[in-house]
Fold this protein.
Amino acid sequence: MQKGSIRVQTENIFPIIKKFLYSEHDIFIRELVSNAVDANQKLKTLSSIGEAKGELGDLKIDIKIDKEKKTLTISDTGLGMTEEEIDKYLNQVAFSGAEEFLEKYKGQNEANIIGHFGLGFYSSFMVSDKVEVISKSFKEGSKAVRWECDGSPEFSLEETEKENRGTDIVLHLNTESEEFLEPSRISTVLEKFCRFLPIPIFFEDKQINNPAPAWTKKPSELTDEDYQNFYKELYPFGEPPLFWIHLNVDYPFNLTGILYFPKIKQSYEIQKDKIQLYCNQVFVTDEVKDIVPEFLMLMHGVIDSPDIPLNVSRSYLQGDPNVRKINSHITKKVADKLEEIFKADRKQFEEKWESLGLFVKYGMMTDDKFLEKANKFHILKDSKENKYYTLEELRLATETLQKNKDGKLVILYTTNPVQQDAYIQQASAKGYIVVSLETIIDNGFISQIEMKWENVQFVRVDSDIVDNLIDKQEGGDSVLSKEDEEKLKGLFAVQIPELNVSVEVKGLSTEAPPVVATRPEFIRRMKDMAAMQGGMGAFYSQMPDEVTLTVNGNHAIYKTVLAEVAPEKQEKLVHNLADLALLSQGLLKGNSLTSFINRSVELMS
């Protein structure tokens, strides 16, 4: 048996680093600027414990382009490196100076140090033919040194001249990477990755970052205006947010950030991936689906945590118990905040429900812990009055009228108050409360929530005649003879493309319409859901609509219809009445609608 150590040769590892270390080459700027930030942060730490003598001076980072020399230079005024340190940190792949520093100075503001893997510096070789490092240590008597490497295993290290403490990294860009000689390209990358780094960064003599963003401060230090201004900084063209939640946790994990509820327009132009993940103020990603619950992906803002495990390129989240804990914590914080607002200022909460409701309903559908809390502040809007009910308030308000024979609360709802107005009017005349459920997710919401809420049934107001909405009733006797009822049934048995029409005659109220078109709740709901899902769902959505035409035998108009002696005119009158009912359901389209219009004009003339 042979045992030994695996040998890694730089001849083999450099091509891998250059080609595969990062999925996007512009990340080298983030890595090198993050290293420069660390150099400054380490010096601040050493100064605070008396290990760095003298004035710190301006701690900053400068980025310069030289188009003639085809170089990009990143300079810092941090602690710098001696010849021994350069040999130790640059000539040993994946030896992290940050990791060693954290171990040595444990407890001394280590949360501010960014790097951990020791590979970030080598990202410079993805875009460079040659890299120079000129550095002068903060240590007294140190001499400046210059390191140079062309991406091969060979390097040179020599003394040089440098007036001030710190490190300059000079990238001699290769032909494929000359895009990084354009100021606009560098500005775009800095804006994405470095806009909130904690050390001032200058490019083209302008500071491009905010070193102390709002989420790094305590909530007690911020005003509403501060939160609003930070939102504008993140989303310059966005509308002002509804509310915000400031995350500030240091146990059992470190988590800071600010999450905003955006105003969502009626058009539902919903945008996900608007939450940015940072690690010690370094941008990592805007794909945070593992950290933030799915239903809160519609929120905007920033999360920053050094405890979220990342892979070597800091680009993707890895499975970890901390991520699950953070996910649960964010859910709880959002639920607590919404309950707090609801209790403190219900009027304001109700005014913003159109946008808030989308978050709340989505959460209730997908997260049972959130559902438990949301039951206290989820509200339903009366379609006739500007009034809102929680579930319990609606139970009390409808206790006598809207409980069916099985003891279930029947929640009558409308998906389109304008189109379904005639049905709402009839329900209101009976004393029923009809709530509005008009959002893009309401169809899925009611189907799921019926399984989660006890003794609750949702019924759309146009799914049956008003007498049958709460409990199925036997049809009342109409004033028509059986012979006339059968004749009307025959007349109303019209053939309409894409519709399966059934006809019944009942004795409804004399104030009720002459014909009521209804679509069975279950079938219509399934078709609506199928239409949204696409794929096989689209197949079901193309199936004919099931429609029941309930002819009101007590309506006075039928005396005229039955008295008409011209069979052709009688058929046209009946067809028009049927079409009017179908029109109220939005089911009269295309050629059928054209025929209705032409027939109406003909009858009037």
